[in-house]
Write a structure and sequence with these properties.
The structure is a single chain. Strands 1, 2, 3, 4, 5, 6, 7, 8 and 9 form a nine-stranded antiparallel beta sheet that branches. A four-stranded mixed beta sheet has the order 12-10-11-13. It has two domains: 274 residues, no CATH class; 51 residues, no CATH class. The longest helix is centred in the N-terminal third of the chain and has 48 residues. The chain has 327 residues and is α+β, with helices and mostly antiparallel strands.
Length: 327
């Protein structure tokens, strides 16, 4: 065979390899961009939900606990805000069927309340005709409960308020850790630092154990609709939990959406500390395409992209100060 023929074969073979490699790289880049977009969407959705958790009347008069962290979290409004942000960004705000399809990729939404938590997830119910159906529903509020080495049941909160069950009188005694430690013989209440460690560990364990079961059950329902993805509870770093348990908040999981050759799998917390300060929004100016950060009071045509807790965080993400903030 002539050298020119070998050269032609070489070019044809390796051109195909290079083309395939370029195509794979392009797909990876596209997948990365989509993943980043989804990250921004789920983060914004969680933070939007968190800002609605305290929308109850007369929160400061809510009775039951002497604690600045205590109020009844409005899980319904929080969920509505969270889902609306997801529906808008996925382009299904006016499509109920597509919204139901999107919910298949949300195995759980968790609301962390002051003295317990709720999980919004797939559950099997009966339709009006008495036929089994799957729909997303809230669980009952589940307390942060600990059984200590003495066999006593203790209900925990996001701070040092506790409830201890008197097994003889079958009544709960409520108060701050130091108060109950002085009046009752309960070892874990004696030392503040040890109590705080046990409190945080117990709350995280209660939530994670429950979430693992809920997400595993979601697999059963998902397979009935044809989804082959296996939903699992991702590993959540201690740092994320520590930041979240400082106040009420919301946690959403978004999993199983095909992105290139892989599947999207992520979660996002919306912390209650957003409630106590004015939120900073990050958006794109529709007329210029420039990314600005701004407050709710700003007037302007911005397409919301992200939500931040402060200006510095927004600037790091590439947003400029909006003109309304410089006046």
């Amino acid at each position: 065979m002539k050298i020119t023929n070998w050269a032609m074969i070489f070019v044809m073979v390796f051109s195909g390899l290079f083309w395939a490699e370029d195509l794979h790289a392009a797909q990876q880049r596209a997948g990365y961009l989509i993943e980043q977009r989804y990250n921004a969407v789920i983060r914004t959705a969680a933070q939007d939900g968190a800002t609605r958790l305290n929308e109850n009347e007369l929160q400061k008069y809510e009775a039951g606990y002497d604690s600045e962290r205590y109020f009844r979290a409005n899980k319904e409004r929080a969920l509505s805000a969270l889902l609306n942000t997801l529906y808008v960004n996925f382009g299904v705000v006016d499509d109920p069927l597509a919204q139901q399809a999107l919910l298949q990729y949300i195995p759980a939404v968790l609301v962390i309340d002051y003295d317990g938590y709720y999980i919004y997830s797939s559950q099997e119910t009966l339709s009006k005709n008495g036929e089994p159906q799957i729909q997303h529903l809230w669980s009952e509020k589940k307390p942060y409960t600990l059984i200590d080495e003495q066999g006593k049941a203790i209900r925990l909160t996001l701070d040092d308020q506790v409830e201890v069950l008197d097994s003889q009188r079958r009544q709960w005694s409520r108060g701050r850790r130091a108060e109950l430690a002085a009046s009752q013989d309960i070892t874990i209440l004696k030392q503040e630092a040890r109590f705080d460690d046990i409190r945080r560990t117990t709350i995280v364990r209660c939530i994670e154990d429950d979430l693992a079961g809920v997400i595993n059950k979601h697999n059963t329902y998902a397979r009935q609709t044809g989804l082959k993805y296996t939903f699992t509870l991702p590993t959540i770093p201690d740092e994320d939990w520590d930041n979240t348990l400082a106040d009420v908040g919301i946690l959403v999981f978004l999993q199983g959406i095909p992105v290139g050759e892989q599947y999207y799998n992520n979660y996002s917390f919306g912390g209650g500390r957003l409630i106590k300060r004015k939120v900073i929004y990050g958006g794109v100016d529709l007329s210029s395409g420039i990314k600005y950060y701004y407050r709710e009071s700003c007037k302007g045509s911005y397409k919301l992209e992200e939500v931040f807790t402060n200006e510095r965080e927004a600037a790091v993400r590439g947003y400029f100060e909006a003109p309304c903030l410089t006046k």
